[in-house]
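Reader question, answered in our methods column.
A reader sent in the components of a multi-part assembly and asked whether the whole thing could be modeled at once rather than chain by chain. We filled in our standard form and ran it. Here is what they sent:
COMPLEX SIZE: two components
ENTRIES:
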Amino acid sequence: MYNSNKMKFWRSFNFVLLIVGSLFMVAPLFWMVSISLKSMEEIYRGEFTFIPQDIHFSNFVDIFQAAPFLTYFVNTSVITVFVVLANVFVNAFIAYGFAKISFKGRDKLFILVLSTMMLPGFITLIPQYVIFAKLGLVNTYYPLVLPSFFGSAFNIFLLRQFFKSVPNSMIEAARMEGANHFHIFFKIALPMIKPALFTVAIFSFNGVWNDFLGPLLYLNDESLYTLQLGLQVFKEQSSTQWNYLMAGSLLVLLPVILLFFFFQKYFIQGSNILGQTEDK
Amino acid sequence: MKKYLLLIVMSILLLSACGGFQIGGGSEEPASTETDNASGDTADSGSEASGSGEKITLDFWTFWGSEQRRPIVDQIIEDFNNSQEEIEVQHTYVPWGDIWTKNLAAIAAGDPPDVIINDINTVKLRAQEGQMEPLTEFVDEEVQNRFYDQMAEATMVDGEMYALPFNTDTQILFYNKDLFEEAGLDPEDPPSTWAEMEEYAAALDVQEGESYETIGFYPLIGPGSDLWMLNALGENYIDEEGNVSIDTEPVHDTFNWILEQKNKYGENTITSINSQFENAQQDPFMAGNIAMMVQNANYYVQLRDFGQDLNFGVAPLPEKEEGNGHTSWGGGFVAEVPSGAKNPEASYQFIEFLTNHDTQLYWAENNFDLVANQEAAMAAAESEEFSEAGQEVYSLMVENMDNTLLTPQPLVAPDYASTINPTFESIISEDTTVEAGLEKAQSDLERIVENNR
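And here is the structure of the entire assembly that came back:
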């Protein structure tokens, strides 16, 4: 009797704690929704209200007049698809090599790859820009997409750890049966590390979907602009149209949230296993 | 395996279908039809001859992409394109603030835009760094004399003119007439000295227990302490040669005056109002939380559009004491040609058009910006396009240019403010005394100048 009461207490305590915690996390999102439905007059009046006095759903329609967001949506999606696919498959391919194929100088090479993580992206930004400019690729999507086809150290590291958890005996068995490494990679190793692949996919989706600096530097033609650049039209030197900015941001945020809901099972699995694998 | 093959084939199809993967799209129409690029040239085709005759194509970068501004820029460009046969200008919107980062990268890579709108107070620095083409050879006397003197001066280095001023602004006093009346003050007689500001503020304060419902005035809501130093000194605290006048009596008085008012209202009141202002999602003046506020004169547009008929008045900045001068500060933008641009002469032709009387008047009437062309600004002050309140504010802006200083960054102390401002801030937050703080700021800045000479 005593015990179950105590348990009940802790359960409800946990429950309340979780509710308060999530309210805390969701509040900024509510605030965004609230502002996106207000008029500028109401925003400037400065009353702290979550529920707008007049609800302006029209903000969500009006933003399409300010900028061609549909085009931006398509553009962003195209870039995202390429980058995510490349990130997942190219990095997995490289990682598999580092994890499962032994060759001379492998570990030194791996350290070299890892060392690229030490360089902040901003340092390579301008040299990279100059290279792409010399290649005549500025104002195309190549500078935004191509680098992801050459691997990224973090993802390689992450996936390598996962591949290490694939038992060598399994790979050797496959080789005995006559399978080559390509076959093993696609048919055996990849399916076994699915959660990790989803993690990489989601991370890189977030990264590229929200990327601002890359498109800003490389794209000149407004018809090639992405959503993140498009959102900036609501910000000016002295004033910002907060209601439009928030409405636009919500629409841009939507795919990210949807993605998370669909893949959260894998996402959480992947994040949990991160760093726990050991050589086998 | 088939699945992956399919994937690759699909990617290639997508690749070829999408405009973003066409290199040097000059020969083909841009893939998207959403923007109204009338001709098929893309930005980077520069001065190359292209499909529609032998026209020179200019790429014009601005940060004016909003619903209000973009149609006006586009109209000006259309007028220019129709006004002659040789040059076709295309507008590219690049986000505010980031536009200059992008410009730098493009200059470094040798592929800059042909014309860009840039900050006026840093023209000299960019000229010195070789980031822009000199325009002197194209500028005739009429053009040279179009502009407010201080603006034209800000674009000159060693007798060379590097840009043409486009627009400017000036800081003025906004006050709430209704609150004046409630406090028994004459709404047509705004304060004109610092002492009067304090007097009026005391009358306008509405206190409720320990906290304030409305504060009359606090100097640092809106502007920073540098504006008040400028106002007190009648000049910037560092001049073009690098002479520093921070540890001086007027500046001491300035900080003591600010601190006096800060202590009257208390840290909490100031923080709460300032945070409203800084996150810019609320406006303490429109909300009636502050009765008098110094602001950029363009703030009128926000009052007009979102102020819901707030009954306000405008006045020049108060002066430190009678006869000291109502010195105010202005910034602004120029149109310039980044170095490496392919056709500076054609670029100049367009810049000249941007700053002529009719274009500037059109810009002024539609954006309520104070334009750099003096005659256009004076014409705008009487424009039928403005309401009575609009005309009043615009006239004050024009008059205020007599008292308005620009503060071009001196070559001997680029970006001096970011080094010195923390010291000013620590005086305001009372981590340092006024005496110690100003002495430190003076010697720090002198050292910077010394190092750069």
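What stands out: The first helix of chain A runs from residue 2 to 36. Chain A touches chain B through 55 residues (CB under 8 Å).
Send us your own complexes using the same form.
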